[in-house]
Amino acid sequence: MIYRAIQQANARRVALVGIAKHAGKTTVLNALIQRAETSGRRLGIVSIGVDGERNDAIMGVPKPEVYVPGGTLVASAGDVLTAGTADLSILASTGISSTLGDIYIAEVKQPGTVLLAGIRYAAQVEQVLSQMEEIGAELCLVDGAFDRMMAASPELTDGVVLATGGVVAKTVEEVARKTRFFLQRFSLPSASSLQARLFDLAVEKGALVVGGETDEEDVCVLAQGSSFTANPQADPQWPGHEKARILAVPGAVTDRLLGMLEGLPRGFTLVLADATHFFASAEAWRKFLRRGGQVVVRRPIRVFGLTVNPHSVTGYDLPRGELLRSVREVAAEVAVEDVKFAENEG
Known about the structure:
Blueprint: H1 2-8, E1 13-18, H2 25-39, E2 43-48, E3 50-51, E4 66-68, E5 73-77, E6 87-93, E7 103-110, E8 112-114, E9 116-117, H3 122-135, E10 139-144, E11 160-165, H4 172-186, H5 193-205, E12 209-211, E13 220-221, E14 246-249, H6 255-259, E15 269-272, H7 282-290, E16 294-297, E17 303-309, E18 311-312, E19 316-317, H8 320-331, E20 336-337
Parallel strand pairs: 1-10, 1-11, 2-5, 2-10, 11-17, 14-15, 15-16, 17-20
Antiparallel strand pairs: 3-9, 4-8, 5-7, 6-7, 12-13, 12-14, 18-19
């Protein structure tokens, strides 16, 4: 289901993001690699952080290795480029340096495992993906660490596959609840044309921008530029409750910022770049929505699917069938599967 959705969208760049650490993201990566190989698409594989190590660096638990077929392009640091079993041939240097050495793009000559490491920033991801596509990659998979959602940014990738499972919570109900919040976050509605223009102005000015309900109303560029420290209603340029209807935020939306917007009229709307900039907790978001607030994005993120892993590395397993049913209920039209048991999709 999920790989078919990627094919039907003609996606060339797909991000993988886990709702929590050890949610099964590497297993999903391996499954997508296998399906892409079956369909004859040449792959490019990038990881933000480290992927493919045998044991987790923090918990020490075993992790799935990343297995790549011949012809695949991989990007990794020189010090770990030969750490796996795959036979690699270096094709290009990226000019990117890391603590593990310079980052190279290599082609897999003989299939095997690889260790991917060294890439940390969005600009580096974009550069490497562009290089891989120039070399001949037809589908690039970007493995994003659970605490680095930038892999799913629409500026980098065409959509995302999310991973959830038993590691998220100890009950099926709680896993489903937390997964629903994550999906809602990645499904924020698109901004209207007016809201989009205000956001673009905020990016241009490098500051928060306030607007009204129509183009004719005054637009105010706030003196406070950082969403992490701003108190919009205390800003000297704040136009007042009567005129303020939209706040465009070029940075991140956090619990603190939502709390600073209490007392505003119903229908007040926050505009942000995309879901990767939304860091508010479920509780703070619900409180904002109950007050009549809205959150929209300049660029929506396409969710190709949601994978479920019943196992938790802490030592328990949730009932697979019940977990799949509960997650499918909250996922609505988003495809949900356990990739270990999914039928061959070709």
